Amino acid sequence: MAADRRIVIENCAIATVDANDTEYTSGHVVVTGNRIESLGAGPAPEGLENVARRIDASGHLVTPGLINTHHHFYQWITRGLATDHNLFDWLVALYPVWARIDEPMVRAAAQGSLAMMARGGVTTAMDHHYVFPRGSGDLSGAIISAARDMGVRFTLARGSMDRGEKDGGLPPDFAVETLEDALAATEDTVRQHHDSTFDAMTQVAVAPCSPFSVSTELMRDGAQLARRLGVRLHTHGSETVEEEKFCHELFGMGPTDYFESTGWLGEDVWMAHCVHMNDSDIAAFARTRTGVAHCPSSNARLAAGIARVPDLLAAGVPVGLGVDGTASNESGELHTELRNALLINRLGAHKERALNARQALRLGTYGGAQVLGRAAETGSLEPGKLADLVLWRMDTLAHASIADPVTALVFGAAAPVTASFVNGRQIVEDGRLLTVDEDAIARSTRDEAQRLARIAAQA
Ligand SMILES: [Zn+2]
């Protein structure tokens, strides 16, 4: 068997985001096959064999690829609606539209969501998909194949809802599944698609939508199912005051206690939002190593509040970043979340010391890998880890006058992506996707958004 070919990247600033936050002002990275072979200061070692490509990355910052930990791809075709609503009003306005999605719509929306993230430096994506209307086709298969075609590493959080309108929930009854169907379909998806190997490109998590759209049985049985199958657990938690009130009325306790009572705290769990957490909630997350997907833009868009990220980090809670669905964050880019995590947390209790640029970059890389359970494989640049990395161009108008590249990346405008590698394979060049036709995706997402709007208007 021929030796793996090498790619040598040189003359770039490097932020490794390793445990010591090691950085190089001018260094090199050597990629062999799908792994990082070596990196360090100065040029690459001389005499390397099988060098297929040598990249002069002068003027660039190299970082680990960005990792998104919370999203709803299908919402790509319902962006810009219900723009002045809080969470519950927004859900009530949008569920009747979402309940009409079908496989071609979900495929186009997944392509749109993935393309937007990948061209902006995301190398690991996730989709929490929980709307499975009766007869809508193989939605999980469509989403997974879209991620495979794009070439990004991917976790599908197979969602579910079994609390429709007749049971006091918000979604229409035909858009929810029965408890039995939800569990069986989730198990099926795990068995068909989950890969537990080190370089897995596709993983599956068990992900009932939220306490207010799911029965207690589905929460409890879902947790048991995930542990039986050895996969991770994901849901929404403590997003709004209304949700907190709902939990107290229905279950006689707050969201974190409810999660604990149903088996939903643990190092194999990560939860989106976690905005309304008191000190004992944070201590429970820290004690159990439960992870958090912080979604600052979506929380602002829906006026949900500011998550206590500095307190979560100080307590030792693993925290990653999420764009959330693009019906509540129309940008759909993770750079926005790096920047907003830093800025929005400074509006909270900790003021100017809330988060710095390096902590924000860590949330969007290593923190994301932690909450997805993949910190051994990706999330930092270290020898032996997977070659998921981004070359950000820092010598153009937007950033050239900022001396520190990490500050430029986080505080500045979204930096142009000269190249993005996933698993050692280049998927972006000069801001364009190499794996798919971006313009064709733009057209199909517009067509499917219009088709969905027509169907929803006729219903
Ligand atoms: Zn969400």
Automatic annotation (TrEMBL):
One GO molecular function term of this record is:
deaminase activity
Q: Does the keyword Heme apply?
A: no
What EC number(s) has UniProt assigned to this enzyme? 3.5.4.32
Keyword check for Hydrolase:
yes
What keywords were assigned to this record? Hydrolase, Metal-binding, Zinc
Where the record annotates domain Amidohydrolase-related, the positions are 61-425
NCBIfam families attached to this UniProt entry: PRK08203.1
The protein, known as = 8-oxoguanine deaminase
- Top-down, what is the taxonomic lineage of the species of origin? Bacteria, Bacillati, Actinomycetota, Actinomycetes, Kitasatosporales
